[in-house]
Design brief:
The longest helix is centred in the last third of the chain and has 36 residues, at 310-345. This protein is of the alpha+beta class. The protein is built from three helices and 18 strands.
């Protein structure tokens, strides 16, 4: 099955579609099945979605979203932090998610009076076991269980080669501390640079988790043109966790606004063995061929190896020298044999 996500009207998705009749004709004459989650009410999970006018937000027993700290809920946006120093705020879904395959669309805006490199710190989107647990990582718990997507606007590590603002993902089982000094570099699965601050329009991202694959797409120009930011396989996330968003400011600040968080269920077939698993018992983990810290941001959205260290340079030079010596010896032997053959003819 091939899955696509489209945007109908002002909704967001991973690809743009032609009119519905033509789409049905296309599906009729091909074997490709396309799941249109965006704009399709039956796939939208309202109990996990945060939308205007933000009904169901508060501390009452019937509320589906609860907030903490400096968070301010208005009729137009949810402001996690104002453009003021040393603020923290968060908003969390009170209903655990028991979907195996899902997609979360986030409409947000980061803006403020700070000039270049004089703003911070950013927004985090969470899918975690814990909720409303304040901490040092964008206003939330550092040793979390689950998935975190960071929209990081402040560069702590001046020596790093990543360009900020920078969007990146981390999966944690509660054992990994967040590396503040390196902006989470040691645990990062993948990421991309994106100029998302002080736009005249809202910015968007979509987080898809399906059959062990985590994909993050971004739309920062409001042109319905999605760019791939992260695409990682081998990701294991349990069900029964909570979605949330948090933000923090330090000595530098910004307005961190969430306009909407819309959760969609993806209709995906699983094997009988997968269906028989207790997905609430799965440990958050990632199977990678190499360590996440060996990744460096590439402007194309891909990743390349880390820069050559002195030790690596030495090994390369040694291998090159050995290669030259071997080629020289082989060449000398071949030349000597040819000389001996030529003497026989004379």
């Amino acid at each position: 099955m091939v899955s696509c996500i489209g945007r109908v009207s002002k909704m967001r998705g991973f690809c743009t579609f032609i009119s519905r009749p033509l789409l049905f004709l296309f599906l009729h004459f091909t074997l490709v099945q396309c799941d249109i989650t965006d704009g399709n009410v039956e796939h939208l999970k309202r109990e996990h979605s945060l939308m205007k006018p933000y009904q169901g937000v508060g501390s009452s027993p019937s509320s589906q979203w609860d907030f903490w700290g400096s968070t301010l809920v208005t009729s137009s946006y949810v402001r996690l932090t104002p453009d003021e120093r040393s603020r923290q705020g968060s908003i969390w879904n009170t209903v655990p998610v028991y979907l195996k395959d899902w997609e979360m669309h986030v409409q947000y805006k980061i803006h403020g009076s700070g000039k270049k490199n004089l703003h911070g710190d950013g927004i985090a989107i969470w899918y975690t076991k814990e909720r409303l647990h304040p901490g040092s990582v964008f206003g939330s718990n550092a040793k979390f269980h689950g998935l975190a997507l960071f929209i990081d606007t402040y560069h702590n590590d001046e020596a790093a080669d990543r360009s900020f603002p920078y969007i990146y993902a981390i999966v944690n089982n509660g054992s990994l501390p967040y590396d503040h000094g390196n902006d989470g570099r040691t645990s990062e699965l993948g990421g991309c640079s994106s100029e998302i601050r002080n736009k005249d329009h809202d910015t968007y991202l979509a987080i898809r988790y399906s059959k062990g694959r985590l994909t993050v797409m971004i739309d920062i120009d409001d042109k319905n043109e999605w760019k791939e930011c992260i695409d990682i396989g081998g990701v294991r996330l349990p069900t029964g966790y909570y979605f949330g968003a948090s933000a923090a400011t330090g000595d530098l600040s910004d307005n961190h606004d969430i306009i909407s968080m819309k959760m969609y269920q993806l209709m995906v077939e699983h094997t009988p063995d997968e269906d028989s698993l207790d997905w609430t018992k799965i440990e958050p983990s990632v199977s990678l061929l190499k360590s996440p810290k060996d990744n460096i941001d590439d402007p194309t959205g891909n990743f390349r190896s880390t820069p050559l260290t002195g030790w690596k340079v030495f090994l390369l030079l040694l291998c090159a020298l050995l290669g030259i010596v071997v080629c020289g010896v082989v060449g000398a032997v071949v030349f000597q044999k040819r000389q001996e053959r030529n003497r026989r003819f004379y």
